[in-house]
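Q: How would the structure tokens look for this protein?
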Amino acid sequence: MSKKSISRLLFATICGILFLSSFDAPTKEAVYAVEKKQVERHYRDLLEVGVRSFHEWLVTARLLDSRRITLKQAKKKFAETRKTYKTIEFLVAYLEEEDVEEFINGGPFPTADNAANAANLLKINPPCGLQTIEKQLFSDTINTRKIVLLSQKLLIDFQEIAERQERQPLDEQIILEAVRLNIIRAATIGISGGDAPESGNAIDETDTSLSSMFATIVPYLSAYLRKDEAKATKLILLMQQTHDYLNQHTDFDTFNRLKFIHDFANPLFAELLTLQKTLNIEVNPSTLAQETAVNLLSSNIFAPDFLNKPFFTKLKPEDSRKEVADLGKILFFDPILSANNRRACASCHDPKLGFTDGKRKSIAFDLETTVPRNAPTVVNSIYAVKWFDDLRAASLETQIKGVVTSEKEFHSNYADILIKIIKSAEYKQLFRRAFGK
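A: Here is the predicted structure in token form.
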């Protein structure tokens, strides 16, 4: 999608809003019924375009492999393919986040198989998807045959997702939640080049993604104008200004990311929530707090409650009390967790060193040899979803067991640790205070 196409799309969006707003106000149900049909039809069309685009890219990859086109021509076609995907990413990724991350547009590194992980089995999938193909295209030792194989898999995987999503019913809550989460994606992965590190097309792709997203919510904006003209106008102008800024500042190296986040992304995240509340569209209820990483009731991406801690910890509220945290802090620094009573969590995760140990490889249980790698920081580790360098632990409970039982770390077991704790009057009191028993 060219710059002119994006500008025309956004201009058509604004015109569509004003046109729809000129009629008598329909009922809330009528607006949503029309929107549902429009978006579902529009989305099915975009999915078909996406499949066709991935197929055309596969043809291009084969031409490159047979040396019938140049690498420059292939890169140009690949950029077009990525931009086509970006027009639908906000809904594709919302509806099937894990599969999109694993097969379509995740990082170019091995991933833990989600299906196997759910069955407590460790299976690592090799890198695949758009980012892996891009890495190959920009490699000094390009492997065109590998690009063809990756492109074949990409097409098959996307076709499967598209077939499922063609039957996916869409309602107003899904659409607006997908839109707001895409603002976060733009402010993090998008403008940082996180999913297009080699090509340098990150700003252009972000503009494409947001413009397509804005066009999708036209019926809601027209209803919003009728309900609160001042607030609706503010949002519409902010959308236009966001596009203008991205369109006018295209250089990746000089792009002012702080200004974009402060002046556009964060205000958009807030104003879209205001739209949702004004139109009485349900916001993800608190009963589902453990199911979403982002707190969609938050209006500020910098707010302390922006990320849902229960989603990551899987803890019940009663297990998140201060008394429990205080007990955990004491255990973190206590070497009784190790068999020799000389190694604690803090031995390798020292608060004075950013909760690392500052070493290339951490000291092992015997205090002489080392473990295979260095200790990562535990700062913000609450927001991780997998642990260890091979991603083998899918929960903190599994992770700590790996440390406790490792011969090179604590070289212990839960039974021995329990005996030590039972013998401690202080720990008995702390556990009783934390858990009531």
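Confidence is low (pLDDT under 50) at residues 18-31.

Residues 28-65 form the longest helix (38 residues).

Upvote if useful.
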